[in-house]
Specification:
The complex is a heterodimer. By secondary structure, chain A is an all-alpha fold. Helices cover 80% and strands 0% of the residues of chain A. The two termini of chain A are 17 Å apart. By secondary structure, chain B is α+β, with helices and mostly antiparallel strands. Chain B is 46% helix and 20% strand. Chain B contains 8 helices and 12 strands. The interface between A and B is medium-sized, with 33 and 36 residues.
């Protein structure tokens, strides 16, 4: 990834992070869009797995510091998701929106899974409801929003050769 | 190359493990230990994001508050509308109760459910929540406190269907308030608001009704009892019929406002409704009776006065004639004492000529009799 591409990716990630802290509170949906996951995947596929894990860790720390959730849970989940996304970047780079959407869905669900299990520290019906009902819904919404965001921001991400 | 790749993989794995370990350490830290870290992050790197989030939450809060206020305002408005509807319904129910208390017997109260087919512009029938089990029969009149609504068309055990006066099949024998004009009421064939008007047909040409004249059922035909208000005359309609007039009526009852009605039973129809709606009819007839009585009294008084005046004039004339005759030396016949009274009573006797009576002449003769002048021997 050249310097211009890195700047563009950082810009798009910054936009997505800002959206996460502006649009999401405004919408306040029960199954909300997670723009941080979209930003994480977008950055991770352009980084080495180790760097992606660090990127996820930092992004998770940011999320943990603002949220009331247990500190470190998001960092742990995002580290793993970032590393996995970078490791599977060959698949993720496929120019197929449906496939990208599926991986966004999967990433968000795995993130929620790790985050909830680590955060709750106990298995109860509410956790099961969250994992099997609300998390898939949130993952689906995130996937749709991520695909839309990628489609909109695609011109910004493309590297001009001429 | 392979060594470099292997080295890179190890570095990646090491970074992942490092991140995971740090995360787990953060997770297992006590609150008092991890709060300073989180607080430091919030005050430094994450501060712009915190500010953005706070602003968004404030916007959200303002929007929700505005929505709640709007909802509250809407609720108040809806409550106000409902209250108004309840007031109207209460007023109508009071009127129905009043009508029921005036009727006293021979009626079945029922709720009216309007049923208009989608293709119909005008409501022509309504479903009533009382049926034959409650005493409703076919052709029973359906009335409201304001007046006539329609007639029962079908009566099922628990419900019945009534046609309104807007139905093309509706007919009612009607009359004016003073019972001088009779006719048949038909629904008016018009569109829009005119579709709810009525026509009074078959009124004789010699009878002219003024706008505002109230029209009641006449009781002819036996379907409707006499005296139920139908409506008021609006204007005369031009028709081709030379011997009858047709009038446009404004109905007393608006079908859309009718929610509760009374169905008059057949026995009540037979025995009449008395002074329930027909206050105007009875008042008019009473007024006419009073006026007629006043007229006859005045006429009689005038007659008596004229007769008395004539008797006085006769007495004066007779006295004048007598005095003239007396002055001329003619014999004056005294007037019979009851002659004036007799004349005043209307028994006009033929003028009697003065007749010379024997006692009168005798008296006169006596006045010159010698024995009256003759002195007594004593």
């Amino acid at each position: 990834m050249n310097w211009t591409g890195a700047v563009r990716t950082m810009l798009v990630c910054a936009i997505l992070i800002v959206l996460h802290y502006t649009l999401r509170p405004l919408l306040a949906w029960r199954a909300s869009i997670d723009f941080l996951i979209v930003a994480l995947l977008l950055g991770s596929v352009r980084l080495r797995p180790g760097a992606a894990a660090v990127y996820g860790f930092l992004l998770g720390l940011v999320a943990d510091s603002i949220a009331v959730s247990p500190f470190g849970a998001a960092a742990l989940a995002m580290s793993i998701v970032g590393f996995g996304a970078s490791w599977l970047k060959a698949v993720f780079f496929a120019d197929n929106l449906a496939l990208n959407g599926f991986f966004l869905f999967l990433a968000k669900w795995i993130f929620d899974l790790i985050f909830l299990i680590v955060g709750h520290r106990a298995i109860d019906p509410e956790l099961a409801m969250q994992i099997f009902v609300w998390s898939p819904l949130a993952a689906a919404v995130t996937a749709v929003a991520g695909v839309l965001a990628l489609s909109v921001l695609k011109p910004l991400m493309e590297v001009r050769t001429t | 190359m392979a060594t470099a790749a292997r080295y890179g993989s190890r570095v990646d794995a090491g970074l992942l493990v490092g991140c995971v370990v740090l995360s787990l350490i953060a997770v297992v830290l006590k609150d008092e230990d991890r709060e300073p870290v989180a607080s430091a992050l919030r005050r430094s790197i994450v501060a712009p994001l915190v500010s953005l989030q706070r602003g968004a939450e404030r916007w959200r809060s303002a929007w929700v508050t505005s929505e709640q206020r709007q909802l509250a305002a809407d609720s108040i408005a809806i409550r106000g509308i409902k209250e108004q509807a309840l007031l109207v319904e209460n007023e109508q129910l009071r009127k129905v109760v009043g009508l029921g208390s005036r009727l006293e017997w021979g009626f079945v109260p029922a709720e009216a459910v309007h049923s208009a087919a989608p293709s119909e512009d005008v409501v022509t029938n309504m479903t009533l929540t009382a049926g034959s089990l409650a005493g409703v029969q076919r052709y029973n009149p359906v009335v409201a406190p304001e007046g006539l609504v329609g007639v029962v068309q079908t009566a099922d055990p628990t419900m019945s269907v009534a046609i309104l006066y807007t139905s093309p099949d509706f007919r009612a024998s009607a009359m004016s308030a003073d019972a001088t004009a009779f006719g048949i009421v038909y629904p008016h064939t018009g569109r829009g608001s005119a579709a709810y008007m009525l026509e009074l047909r078959g009124v004789p040409t010699r009878v002219q009704l003024k706008p505002g004249t109230q029209i009641f059922t006449s009781g002819l035909g036996g379907t409707f009892p006499r005296g139920i208000t139908i409506g008021t005359v609006v204007s005369e309609l031009k028709t081709t019929e030379p011997w009858t007039r047709t009038y446009l009526l404004r109905p007393a009852v608006s079908p859309s406002h009718v929610t509760t009605v009374l169905v008059l039973t057949a026995q009540r129809v037979t025995q009449g409704t008395g002074n329930v709606w027909g206050a105007a009819v009875n008042a008019d007839s009473a007024t006419r009776r009073i006026a007629a009585a006043n007229d006859s009294i005045a006429r009689q008084a005038a007659l008596i006065e004229a007769q008395a005046r004539r008797a006085v004039l006769d007495s004066v004339r007779r006295a004048t004639i007598d005095s003239v005759r007396r002055s001329l030396g003619a014999v004056v016949t005294p007037e019979a004492p009851d002659s004036a009274a007799g004349r005043a009573a209307g028994v006009l006797s033929t003028p009697r000529m003065p007749v010379q009576r024997r006692d009168t002449t005798r008296a006169r003769r006596d006045s010159i009799r010698p024995d009256t002048t003759r002195k007594s021997p004593t």
